[in-house]
Amino acid sequence: MHGPIAALSDNPSSLYTDEQAKHLLRLKYAFPVMVKKWRDLARAKSSYQELLTEEDRKKLDDCTKSKARLKVKYENKEEQGRELEELLQDIRTRQKEIMDERHEGLKTLKNSCC
Question: What is the pTM of this model?
Fold first, then answer.
């Protein structure tokens, strides 16, 4: 990182296009700020973890496990719902076939009687 920026400072026109030089200069000033923000976030995260009591960690763990159990239960119910929908569709298809057979039988009976 320092090599390209140092080369840019020494002789900007020889190594990079104007667009590349602009990006490198922006990065030269933005990079230290980004690193500081990352360090601050890492410190904040570690201090936050230290603030959690054992009871809080247990509650968080319990919630995570409950969420996983509920997700599995939900997925099982979704699968049962799909199976029931398929069964209902089969029943409706069979019901239609029976009604068609009945109508055909009545039609045949009517034609043979009259």
Answer: 0.43
